[in-house]
Hints:
Blueprint: E1 2-6, E2 13-18, E3 36-41, E4 44-50, H1 59-75, E5 80-84, H2 92-106, E6 123-127, H3 133-154, H4 162-170, E7 178-183, H5 185-190, H6 194-200, E8 208-215, E9 223-228, E10 230-234, H7 254-269, E11 274-284, E12 296-298, E13 304-306, H8 314-329, E14 333-338, H9 343-348, E15 353-357, H10 360-373, E16 377-379, H11 384-388, E17 397-398, H12 409-418, E18 426-430, E19 436-437, E20 448-449, H13 454-460
Parallel strand pairs: 1-6, 2-4, 2-5, 5-6, 9-11, 9-14, 10-11, 13-17, 14-18, 15-16
Antiparallel strand pairs: 3-4, 7-8, 8-11, 12-13, 15-18, 19-20
Helix pairs in contact: 1-2, 2-3, 3-7, 6-8, 7-13, 8-12, 10-13
The structure holds ligand BES and zinc ion (2 copies).
Amino acid sequence: MILKSLKSPRTATIVQFLTNDTPVALADFEGKTDEVTIRYENAQTLIFCGIGTSSACTTAILRCATAKGIQTIQKLKRKSASFLIPALPLDQNEIEKAVIDGIILGAYKFNKYKTEKSTPLATIELINCAMSRSNIRKQQYINDAVNYTRDLINENASVITPPRLASEACSFKKNTGISVTVLDALTLAKNKLNLITAVGAGSTTPPVLIILEYYGSKRSKKTTAIVGKGVTFDSGGQNLKPTGNIETMRHDMAGASAVLGVFSAIAKIRPDINLIGIIPAVHNAIGSKSYFPGDVYTSYAGKTVEIWSTDAEGRLILADAIAYGIEKYHPDCIIDIATLTGGILSALGEYVAGLFSNNDELAGLLFNAGEKTGERLWQLPIYKEYCDSLKGDIGDLRNISKFKKGYAGSIVGAAFIKEFVRDIPWAHIDIAGTAFNESGTQGIIPQFGTGFGVRLLLSFLGI
Ligand code: BES
Ligand code: ZN
Ligand code: ZN
């Protein structure tokens, strides 16, 4: 799809945003949010998208209305259309960004396994858009990155294996300033990354640890690390997941996909920042070589871990990846993003991700980035009692707490990871509720892989 900025529309399909206080009288249309209507006038198709009261309109409302507009165009099988950028009491640049986001994110379809493909969009015109061409392109790169992340999540688990995630990372190397290191199974074992090795042991596709490095800032040495959980399929291992929970577990690499999405945008935008991406990638399989409940392993950091559930595998691979990342790359702060716990769905549902941190400033910056991009976060505490619940009997730590089943599961998961971050500013984002949408398309959020976290992290990084 090509985005063009023009003074007046050249297509015959025109999308216009209407507030419910606009003095334009349109029969049977009030301009409420979520309302869309199609009118045919002479040779033109006019699509009106409601955005509610102008004083209450937000970029989130605008993104959603735009998505409904582009989805209407797709249903009409039009290849081209023109969007009239609205005037609202919001920052003009933010309005324009929201419309571009809504178009690209709203148009996303995972078509690969449909024999009948939908009509592809050719050209979308932005009418009255003040943004420079290069800024439009940058916004396209950001949203293309989200759609790339969605594709990775939606694709078969038998296609997106740990080595495949590594080859995706390697694809960003060409003329971008990004370098990639892949630690294979043998190297993981040699380096005593025993938790990653243990979780990966049951599968015929071997585990890997992927490191992406980008040093784009000439002025600053400040380096951020982002770590993504890359469980390419989570069967639960010996603690096998039951029917009803296992079917969607190809998306247990959504954190890793978000990190790859961020790097795919960085490869094109080449921003003035330093960033390390760390992806522990494993298939948590059940089989004769799988690790066992009751086993004790020595983590990379040296702490020993009692395995009380092979299904609490995300925290294990993250613990090794974070300890390794801190030791080798000395980042100034570290953020992990992971489909870590089903508990976060009970707490926050599908709309908000869990935020955990040892640093209020970092948590605040991430929270603000989420409010801006609409990938909202809500912080939960990691009090001492939760940390104490992880004390082991024959090892240092248990991988799940002694609490009753289901008690504070998301916090306990975060408390486990916290044991491995030493004192550097750290945040953990639990996207188990937001990464995969089982409830059908809702505005810019498609069914299944959502790409949650890509725009959030890019915004946090100042991109
Ligand atoms: N990958 C799951 C978490 C998950 C659940 C992601 C639902 C997406 C949707 C994770 O590895 C897991 O199995 N967590 C367990 C931990 C438990 C054994 C302490 C959970 O949350 O139930
Ligand atoms: Zn699991
Ligand atoms: Zn998992």
